[in-house]
């Protein structure tokens, strides 16, 4: 029988289908269930999901990919690089050549991981875009492939076009996980990670088994399953025992689980970053004065109170609070009078625009409608347009004037490179500014951390003054796990420890 044919599923046969996606009631596992199989649920995105580490960037994609693959470097909770497949990385005196020492590891087919795999991955990311652009193409654009070389099987030398003393941060970015030399088909991926791929269906279930020869120690779990489900379905499934782990729970779900027998709840502050994104390449947001007006059109306190149910802090149009290179700037306040003065100075009358959204993140629809009320109090008309949740993040890259989004923390240089440099593949705001691009290059070429911080601060100030992002709230990140397991991660999203299940074990 197909797993989706019946609403009564065991943990072993669990698969998110129409019943779970709709929040249907599922039967709980009985005592003595298979604690060697661990099932985790995150927000799904249907056909938009994938398992190619070069192009797929949803939260659920990243969790699957970190099970199968490793990066040379990943980041800790402060978004600072830590070595993984690399043992170390050292620049030359001029900052234009980095020598990366590689650890001994093996691919899931038993072949050795070598410097050639690193060179292939870099060439793939920097080569012609395929069906979708490579996420790290601009982050790694400083690499001069023609001068990169394998010194020996466990040492690679990466040459740069311009000096960069912050290059290890780039090597820890989304889209930089290492793939095997010659890989062209990701239908059955082979990685070096803690779990070996078994099966995957976009919008459905991912299954992987333990890699008994993992370089960082074999997982104690025998099998990992990752499924996509809506927030209500994730709550119901972890309550009933149908799943073992639920990620990115809403504040109301967290309240429902707090103190519940058999379930542990963790809440990581300042970890879910909610934003509006203005397309700066089209009217009305091609005018920086209009963009500045929108920054003061948002009552952040009310958005956090209502849309985020009070579980979070207000944002301030500066990305990366708590991360290295963050800049403290005066709070942007909700100010209808200032909005009016700015719009009059820009010669704008009867301003109206569409806000394109979908229920892909907690409170998106509520936040959109509330913002429309804030704008109306400023004499501005906002038309809320609701799109498909299955294709929203792909559509929002190109569609509409104003969109919405949710991000986890990210190393600030990587946020700038992948989302804000001219031509960045994840440039939701279509921001393009030669001064900003030049400052990024200058920061990379600055040897001292203090010197880089000063340049990055100027870049923050540009975004704060004339950028396209409005960061309205920094939410707590809630996750729940069944108490049958220990060593379940509770970490900042996008960090190395976040949603890694190779150290999880049955109690």
UniProtKB/TrEMBL annotation:
<dbReference type="InterPro" id="IPR006311">
    <property type="entry name" value="TAT_signal"/>
</dbReference>
<keyword id="KW-0813">Transport</keyword>
<dbReference type="Pfam" id="PF00496">
    <property type="entry name" value="SBP_bac_5"/>
</dbReference>
<dbReference type="GO" id="GO:0042597">
    <property type="term" value="C:periplasmic space"/>
</dbReference>
<dbReference type="GO" id="GO:0030313">
    <property type="term" value="C:cell envelope"/>
</dbReference>
<dbReference type="GO" id="GO:0043190">
    <property type="term" value="C:ATP-binding cassette (ABC) transporter complex"/>
</dbReference>
<comment type="similarity">
    <text>Belongs to the bacterial solute-binding protein 5 family.</text>
</comment>
<dbReference type="GO" id="GO:1904680">
    <property type="term" value="F:peptide transmembrane transporter activity"/>
</dbReference>
<dbReference type="GO" id="GO:0015833">
    <property type="term" value="P:peptide transport"/>
</dbReference>
<protein>
    <submittedName>
        <fullName>ABC transporter substrate-binding protein</fullName>
    </submittedName>
</protein>
<dbReference type="InterPro" id="IPR000914">
    <property type="entry name" value="SBP_5_dom"/>
</dbReference>
<feature type="signal peptide">
    <location>
        <begin position="1"/>
        <end position="21"/>
    </location>
</feature>
<dbReference type="InterPro" id="IPR030678">
    <property type="entry name" value="Peptide/Ni-bd"/>
</dbReference>
<feature type="domain" description="Solute-binding protein family 5">
    <location>
        <begin position="80"/>
        <end position="412"/>
    </location>
</feature>
<dbReference type="InterPro" id="IPR039424">
    <property type="entry name" value="SBP_5"/>
</dbReference>
<keyword id="KW-0732">Signal</keyword>
């Amino acid at each position: 029988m197909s797993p989706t044919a019946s609403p009564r599923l065991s943990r072993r046969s669990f698969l998110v289908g129409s019943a779970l996606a709709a929040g249907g009631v599922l039967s709980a596992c009985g005592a003595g269930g298979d604690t060697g199989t661990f099932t985790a649920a995150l927000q799904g995105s249907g056909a938009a999901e994938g398992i190619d580490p070069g192009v797929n960037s949803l939260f659920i994609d990243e969790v699957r990919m970190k099970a199968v693959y490793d990066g040379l470097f990943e980041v800790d909770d402060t978004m600072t690089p830590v070595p993984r497949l690399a043992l170390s990385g050292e620049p030359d005196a001029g900052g234009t050549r980095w020598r990366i020492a590689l650890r001994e590891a093996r691919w899931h087919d038993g072949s050795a991981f070598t410097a050639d795999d690193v060179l292939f991955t870099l060439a793939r990311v920097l080569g012609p875009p395929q069906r979708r652009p490579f996420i790290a193409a601009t982050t790694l654009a400083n690499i001069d492939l023609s001068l990169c070389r394998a010194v020996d099987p466990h040492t690679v030398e990466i040459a740069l076009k311009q000096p960069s003393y912050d290059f290890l941060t780039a090597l820890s970015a989304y889209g930089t996980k290492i793939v095997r030399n010659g890989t062209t088909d990701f239908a059955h991926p082979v990685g070096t990670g803690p779990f070996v791929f078994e099966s995957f269906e976009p919008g459905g279930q991912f299954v992987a088994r333990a890699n008994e020869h993992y370089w960082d120690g074999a997982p104690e779990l025998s099998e990992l399953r990752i499924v996509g489900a809506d927030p209500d379905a994730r709550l119901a499934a972890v309550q009933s025992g149908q799943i073992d782990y639920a990620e990115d729970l809403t504040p109301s779900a967290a309240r429902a689980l707090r103190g519940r027998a058999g379930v542990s709840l963790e809440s990581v502050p300042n970890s879910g970053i909610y934003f509006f994104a203005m397309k700066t390449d089209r009217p009305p947001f091609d005018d920086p004065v209009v963009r500045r007006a929108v920054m003061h059109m948002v009552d952040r306190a009310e958005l956090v109170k209502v849309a985020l149910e009070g579980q979070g802090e207000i944002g301030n149009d500066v990305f990366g609070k708590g991360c290295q290179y963050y800049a403290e700037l005066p709070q942007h306040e909700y100010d209808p009078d200032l909005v009016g003065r700015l719009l009059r100075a820009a010669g704008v009358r009867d301003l109206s625009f569409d806000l394109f959204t979908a229920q892909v993140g907690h409170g998106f629809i509520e936040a959109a409608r509330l913002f429309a009320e804030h704008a109306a109090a400023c004499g501005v008309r906002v038309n809320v347009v609701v799109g498909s949740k299955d294709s929203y993040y792909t559509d929002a890259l190109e569609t509409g004037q104003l969109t919405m989004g949710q991000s986890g923390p990210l190393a600030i240089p990587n946020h700038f490179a992948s989302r804000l440099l001219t031509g960045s593949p994840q440039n939701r705001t279509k921001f393009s500014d030669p001064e900003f691009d030049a400052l990024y290059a200058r920061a990379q070429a600055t040897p001292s951390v203090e010197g880089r911080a000063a340049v990055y601060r100027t870049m923050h100030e540009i975004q704060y003054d004339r950028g396209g992002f409005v960061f309205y709230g920094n939410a707590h990140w809630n996750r729940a796990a069944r108490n049958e397991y220990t060593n379940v991660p509770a970490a900042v999203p996008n960090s190395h420890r976040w949603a890694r299940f190779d150290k999880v074990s049955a109690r």
